[in-house]
């Protein structure tokens, strides 16, 4: 048995010793909105709804708290994976920063995460949104392997 196969003795951690472990996401980090990359094909929606952006911006100005947007940090870029309407609303409301849930990961991780965004919360996905996500996933090189 190699050292890599020896299990951590913690009952809650079945990770082989020496294995690389991705840290859990960090919640509550406020990041400048202009640092969030939204240009990596991580927006699963076919179209953005400007009425929702206005509604969210008005609520933000009145102090309503929204869930953090979800980003993936690859060591250089924060890839926005979930929360495009909230990001645009925060900009429209005049905010420079937005609360983020930060995952360690790549642009590809952000894309895969985005395919399931808004399945159970927020502005529900339209049939066009669902078709766009399925098409993007099917065209991914990783999916075709």
Describe this structure in words.
This protein has 145 residues and is an alpha/beta fold. It has one domain (24-131): Alpha-Beta Complex (Conserved hypothetical protein from pyrococcus furiosus pfu- 392566-001, ParB domain), CATH 3.90.1530.10. 29% of the residues lie in helices and 19% in strands. The protein has four helices and five strands, in the order E-E-H-E-E-H-E-H-H. It has helices at 50-61, 84-92, 107-114, 127-139, and strands at 26-32, 36-37, 69-73, 78-82, 97-104. A five-stranded mixed sheet has the order 1-5-3-4-2. Helix 1 (50-61) crosses helix 2. It is globular and about 35 Å long. The two termini are 31 Å apart. Mean pLDDT is 77; it is low at 1-15.
Alpha plus pi helix count: 4
Q: For the terminal residues, how far apart are their CA atoms? A: 31 Å
Q: From the alpha carbons, calculate the radius of gyration and give it in angstroms.
A: 18 Å
CATH topology heading: Conserved hypothetical protein from pyrococcus furiosus pfu- 392566-001, ParB domain
Approximately how much helix is present in the residues?
Answer: 25-40%
- CATH class, named Alpha Beta
Shape: globular
Key terms for this structure?
globular, 145 residues, disordered N terminus, alpha/beta, 19% strand, Conserved hypothetical protein from pyrococcus furiosus pfu- 392566-001, ParB domain
Write a short abstract of this structure.
The protein has 145 residues and is of the alpha/beta class. It contains four helices and five strands; from the N terminus they run ββαββαβαα. It has one domain (24-131): Alpha-Beta Complex (Conserved hypothetical protein from pyrococcus furiosus pfu- 392566-001, ParB domain).
